[in-house]
Amino acid sequence: MGVLLRLSDVIRHFGGVHAVDGVSLEIEEGAIFGLIGPNGAGKTTLVNLVTGYLRTQSGSVRLGTPAGEVELARRPPHAVAGLGVARTFQTLRLYRNLTAVENVLVGMHPRRPDDTLAQLLPLPPLRRGEQERLEEARGLLRRVGLESERDGPRPAWTLSYGDQRRLEVARALALRPRLLILDEPAAGMNPAEKDRVRELIQQLNAEGLTVLLIDHDMRLVMGVCRQIAVLNFGRKIADGSPVKVSSDPAVIEAYLGKEAEKTAAHVPGSEEIDVQAPARAPAAAEPAAPLLEVKELEVAYGAIQAVRSVSFGVAKGEIVALIGANGAGKSTILNTLSGLLRPRAGTARFDRLDLTTASPDRIVRGGLVQVPEGREILARLTVRENLELGAWVRRDGQVVEREIAELMERFPILGQRRNLPAGQLSGGEQQILAIARGLLARPRLLLLDEPSLGLAPQMVDAVFEVIERIHKEGVTVLLVEQNALRALELADRAYVVETGRILLSGTGSALRRNPEVRKAYLGG
Amino acid sequence: MDFFIQLLTDPIGFYNSHELLVAQMGINAILAISIFVTFYSGQLTLANAGFMAIGAYTTVLLSLYPRWPLPLDMLLGSLLAGGAGVLVGLPVLRLRGVFLAIATIGFVEALLLGVILNVPITGEGQGLKNPTADPLGGIVPILVSIPVLTYLVWRLTRTRLGQAWAAIREDELAASSNGINVPLYKMIAFVIGAILAGYAGALETHINFFVDPTEYGISRTIQILTFAVVGGTSNVLGPIVGAVFLTALPEILRFVRDYRDVINGVILILVIIFRPQGIVGRGGLALIRPRWLHRRGRVRGSPASAL
User: Fold this and answer.
1) What CATH number is associated with residue A342?
2) Between A521 and A362, residue with greater pLDDT
């Protein structure tokens, strides 16, 4: 088999940042090639260079085609796609208001004859082509695990997160690509869903498709790839078989951090987590005088009931976790508490504040502060400006100044980058910025929505350490997490949410040992 | 009220006494189709009045001096507007959203101040007399054009081209990853919009004896925008309904005619507040649309990432 994609000495710098710094690699035809590396290593930049979204500064990107090798560098994205290179995006980029089927139909664009003029008069032979395309699109939806009857006619934004990810793969497949680039296809998925992604990748590969897979999840990458390259700070530090790469000391240090042995156990999705929780007074019972009290909360998006009769409480000084799979309704609960959504029924009280009617800014002033999913930092403002905005509701400017200075000392990552646009921080750094910004609003209760989403294991550790620290300093925390085992390790108490209901509750350590949790969470 | 009573009870009499109004509705409907095409591809362009002026002046000048047959003049007028669309589009289509809107308004102003009010052949702001105009005959091509154009644009939104436009509107970056040549398809939409606006301008000269340069300024462009906003842009029928409604409004509200712009403004604000999706759109005329016309509703709503 020949080489399908050959990168030689590709360079792309952004100002002083060497995002991709002389990377060379070869992807064999028919391979599943893994590209891994810590956050900010330059993986996505490399994908953007290959697919034409960014221009290379030097080096070449050559794609093997039946007609010989073609230089991809300096071709616009649509031309690269036209040559049979399909990709998905790390952050979902679906056509949100188009239906699932329409999303897939758009994916067929470059290989479909341009029959625009003929279609102005819809004659039967053309309709047949239309029908065939429609059938093919439905087939692709089924292919990736969506139900074409039920999901096909729905606007893409109404699908659950995992389904949206799958739809993006279907849209990429519609091109009938020769090379499929998957940029973190399993980000934010639970282990059961990740397994399905892995099966799909393997199936597609068995049919002859070459796949370039970028992901943080070592289990996924190691499981499916025969060939892996590791990036760190824009350079390739290792490549080879999974076994070779995973035993390479440079890789272990770069990717997993210095305390690799401890951290390795925390790789999301790794089977056994066996860290003993520090002995704490078990507080399995509902608190008697909760700071936050939620009763029979019901939330719906139009016809879709997302939260059904959920009741729970958080006492002062606790860390409480809501865990559960994607689409369980966890984020919906948090968004309702912070006043962004209004419940259909039920009550939610924070101290004396009625959260079901108070405006979001009133709720923040009352001391309930949310750090939203996906961090939502203001990318064009500097780190410092982001922090200053966190203190928007406060009137004590001098104290805020001092607290910002303190935060910058406590989190040197932020202090060193205080004058950089926040958008230039890596995912983990942005998460810490988002938490610090939340702290500046002087929360009595901090809501953290998926703080570990899309972070490399090393960064996940750093973020969880930050959470633990602020909790020790007296902030009450309500944590929503995908990474259930990790969250349970930290939490005093936890609730398992499934399809909008609370399935189980108990202390963190008890739930961690509970086989039911595994079942609810792993979906099997 | 008399307006509606006559419309319903005596359509022929209504037509005879409101011919100019009907013609104006038709021209505005074509302008509405023109702005719809660019909206559908996700571009907020406000250059329509400028392209309209190019179509109008070209048509009149060609029928005054070389005395070519009118259909040929109108064709050349529309095509010249399209050609101007290419020239204007090359630099401004790199812009997006409100910046594109501002740049296209700049084009309208530059055309008006720089060319139309300055060049002897266009009458230097005095306007042009058009003795060949035929108010009664001129209405026929307008009324014929509307269903044809509506059908063509409606079909267009369902072809490969229309699909690419929808994809670009939703997410340009993703569209290019699907192999869609984004700059090209944006340009096609822009030029089709320009040709349609030029055609509307050409038709208008045919029913007026006078080409008035003040007709083609920013207020005209904003008026065309209100057709789309009031009617809704989820469907080609939206802007057309908006155009017909807003053109008829001064007639319906004859007693407050002096406050026409005020009323327009109030209606615009009310629509934006209460029906951001326009008259035609989710829950509006869409409800009574016959089934065979049914296409997906462009539902807007809260982000569903939490679901």
Assistant:
1) 3.40.50.300
2) A362
Average pLDDT value over all residues in chain B: 82
Q: Sign of the C-alpha dihedral, residues B273, B278, B282, B283? A: positive
**Statement to judge: residues A438 and A489 lie in one domain:** yes
d(CA A144, CA A64) in angstroms, rounded, equals 27
Alpha-carbon separation of residue B56 from B129, B146, B185, B212, B215 (angstroms): 12, 18, 26, 10, 11
Instruction: Identify which has the larger pLDDT, A369 or A410.
Output: A369
Considering the domain architecture, whether residues A35 and A15 belong to the same structural domain is answered as yes
Q: How far is CA B129 from CA A263, A454, B117, B142, in A?
A: 84, 68, 15, 21
**Same-domain status, A109 and A157:** yes
| Domain with B188 in it | 2-293
Q: Tell if the CB–CB gap between B180 and A51 is shorter than 8 Å.
A: no
Helix (H) or strand (E) holding A402: helix A397-410
pLDDT at B88: 93
- B10 DSSP 8-state letter: -
The first and second tokens of residue A272, run together, are: 């056994």
Using CA atoms, how far residue B265 sits from A470, B202, B222, B233, B246, in Å, is 53, 28, 11, 19, 11
Is there a single domain that holds both residue A245 and residue A373? no
* pLDDT tens digits, one per residue of B213-224: 888 888 888 889
Q: Are the C-beta atoms of residues B77 and B198 closer than 8 Å to each other? A: yes
With a cut of 80, say whether residue A260 has pLDDT above it: no
Sign of CA dihedral A116, A120, A121, A126: positive
What is the sign of the dihedral through the CA atoms of A160, A166, A170 and A171?
positive
Q: Looking at the 3D structure of chain B, how many domains does it have?
A: 1
What is d(CA B118, CA A491) in angstroms, rounded to the nearest whole number?
76
- pLDDT averaged over chain A? 83
Rounded to whole angstroms, how far apart are CA atoms B229 and B239? Answer: 7
From chain B, the residues in CB contact with A172 under 8 A are 177
Tell me, what CATH number does B152's domain have? 1.10.3470
Q: How many domains does chain A have?
A: 3
Of A75-79, A231-235, A313-317, B121-125, least confident by mean pLDDT is B121-125
Question: Which residue, B89, B87, B66, is CA-closest to B76?
Answer: B66
Residue A396 belongs to some domain of the structure: yes
Does a structural domain hold residue B298?
no
- On whether residue A287 sits in a domain, the answer given is no
User: pLDDT tens across B11-58, in order?
Assistant: 777 777 778 888 889 999 999 999 999 999 999 999 999 999 999 999
Q: Residue A77's domain spans which residues? A: 1-85+187-207+232-256
Give the closest residue to A495 by CA, choosing from A316, A320, A315, A282: A320
Token duo for residue B279? 């008259």
Q: Between residues A499 and B139, which one has the greater pLDDT?
A: B139
Mean pLDDT of A476-487: 84
From chain A, the residues in CB contact with B305 under 8 A are 161, 331, 373-374
Widest pairwise Cα distance in chain B: 66
Task: Number of A to B CB contacts under 8 A, please give it.
Answer: 132
pTM of the entire predicted model? 0.72
**Considering only CB atoms, which residues of chain B are within 8 Å of chain A?**
152, 155-156, 158-164, 166-167, 170-171, 173-182, 296, 298-307
A292-301 β-sheet, strand order: A304-314, A292-301, A345-350, A353-354
| C-alpha radius of gyration, chain A, whole number | 24
